Amino acid sequence: MGIPKNIDALLVKFDLKPESLARIAGVSTATVSRWRTGQTDNIRKANLEEHGRVPSGAKLPSEPRPAYAPLLGRVYAGDACEPDVIDDRIPIPYEVRSAHPDGYFLEVEGNCMSRVYPEGCHIYIDPRQQPRNGSVAVVSIDGADYVMRRLYNTGRTIVLSPDSWDDPYEDIVITGEDERTVEYVGTVVWFQPAEEME
């Protein structure tokens, strides 16, 4: 079926008059008439240049701007432990860095969060973004040990829950009666592999 027959079928199917189709398509009634009789070039060919132009007010994609964030250490996705300190800079999309200017990277060690963050990847955490229930956060337990888990806070109980393909990990549950402290370090807002796959 050619263009003229397709246009006629559209007019019948949607009970349209040529004037209505012209208004919808943003063309003159004469143009619709020429389409129906086959007196004009293929629509795609005739309008290719017109459709290729950027609409008024639209932004063209710009060249990516480089951005870097510090890689400060490793965080264990498993049992809480002292963090390893690293001093490096990692490239990050400019938009992510500008939305979270105080953020920094940590390298994931362990498989406790393997369903969402594989071991060895870099997570970008924002220390200013408060976690919501279910957010993945990095916390310090008792002022020393750091761990990355899903955080659930019921007001009197904090549950740090693993999200792993492996079974041996259990929730860390800290209640108001415990003498343990939990200090929020940051919420994970981005992640990326440590290097490109080969």
TrEMBL record:
GO molecular function, one term: DNA binding
Sorted UniProt keywords: DNA-binding, Transcription, Transcription regulation
The keyword Transcription is assigned to this record: yes
Family matches, as InterPro entries: Cro/C1-type_HTH, Lambda_DNA-bd_dom_sf, LexA-like, LexA/Signal_pep-like_sf, Peptidase_S24_S26A/B/C
Domain Peptidase S24/S26A/S26B/S26C: 70-189
Domain of life of the source: Bacteria
Pfam families, alphabetized: Peptidase_S24
PANTHER family for this protein: FELS-1 PROPHAGE TRANSCRIPTIONAL REGULATOR, PTHR40661
Protein name: LexA family transcriptional regulator
